[in-house]
Design brief:
Chain A has about 280 residues and is mainly alpha-helical. Chain A has 13 helices and three strands. Chain A has two domains: about 60 residues, no CATH class; about 170 residues, no CATH class. In chain A, a hairpin with a 3-residue loop joins strand 2 and strand 3. Chain A is globular, with a radius of gyration of 20 Å. Chain B is α+β, with helices and mostly antiparallel strands and about 170 residues long. Chain B has a domain of about 80 residues: SH3 Domains (SH3 type barrels). The radius of gyration of chain B is 23 Å and the shape is extended. At the A-B interface, helix 3, helix 4, strand 1, helix 10 and helix 11 of A face helix 3, helix 4, helix 5 and helix 6 of B.
Chain lengths: ~280, ~170
Amino acid sequence: MNQHIIKGLTLLALTTGLATAQAFDLGQELRNAAKELQQPGGGSLGGYSEQEEVAIGRQIAGNLLGAAPLVKDAKLQKYVNTVGRWVATQSERPDLAWHFGVIESNDINAFAAPGGYIFVTRGLYRQLTSESELAGVLAHEIGHVIKKHHLKILQQSRMVDLGGKLLAKQTGGNDNIGKLIGSGAEIVSRSLDKGAEFEADRIGVVLAARAGYDAYGLPSVLEKIGHTSAQDDSVALLFKTHPHPDERLSKLGDAMDSRFDGLNGQTAEKRLYRVK
Amino acid sequence: MKPATRYTLPLLTALLLAGNAALAGENATAIKTDSLRDRPFSDAKTVATLNAGSPVEILKREGGWYQIKSAQGSGWIRMLSLRKGDAGKPAAGASASSLASLASGRAGTGKVVSTTGIRGLNEEELKAAHFDEKQVSLAESYQVSRAEAQKFAASAKLKPAKLDYLP
């Protein structure tokens, strides 16, 4: 067990930013962390404090922004935060410090990191024709956060288990998490299982509708994405990491059925902030 | 003949701005057998039954419903009972992929050939990304409080609805 963990960690250390490890005795930290895992109660999955979750998410968000920075449009960013926060308020974590952003990439994609960091690419934003579609996309990502889908992946790979321990031990220890999950924003390019995506879709339509939006914003966006050729570079990563939009639409159609009839939510086409 | 071209640009702009109206004439196919109704409600009168595989023409959308024309008649059908496009045909846009890869600064090999301008995000780029404290702080500076969001919703007349999660 002990051997196994250390071996895994060594491998991890090799695949992560060794170049940045100079000012930090990674090996020693990992040995300490591994030792701690042997303590009673150590290494149990789950049960991260919100503070730990946010620290992990912030690191992933910062790494993602290192690859694709925010679109330089303060009004756009504020707008997306306003709509996103209102939708997130309809979830069971209304008081999390939710952050939303539009990032510079022509890809059609959206990303969620633990702790409420959510990003939509400019490429996806450009596809939107109404505020309800934006709400639907953000609500899907909010679904991933409240169900802790990515955190579970990290926990399964034990990386964060140790990261959390290190963080708890030291103040300002975010650097240590960075070194542990340090392979950039790789985590956001990993596939969740299909079930997690369908679950986020089902949560997404409900949160958007609770917020007073037309529930069909997310399905409309999926329809559009479904029309993009699989050969198109802009959807390569999205298609690789998600079930095909047609499959998602079929599942959503069955789940939604007539439950959203008569709600008369807003589509708010005119209110959608247009990017230049 | 010449004066006519003067109207082309405003007309195009109007078409682009029309949003939903752009749906008109779009082809779709029924992916399951469903009732065609005279109004966009599940308790509205059934005017026909549309079989899976039937081709239709979409006229407009209202909530979760499309108004359509088909050989079986005209009426409203659930949005998610249709799949846009002609069944069996590849999705449009395939021919644009080479242009798209040029625009994203990417060669066919998936390599980034230009670092200027906006580009796509692939796994390698994400993996190689370095933490950007300035950017994450900037992102956090745009945070909207719950109270601000509530104020926005009230002014936008967004009425919260009570709804259970879907099973």
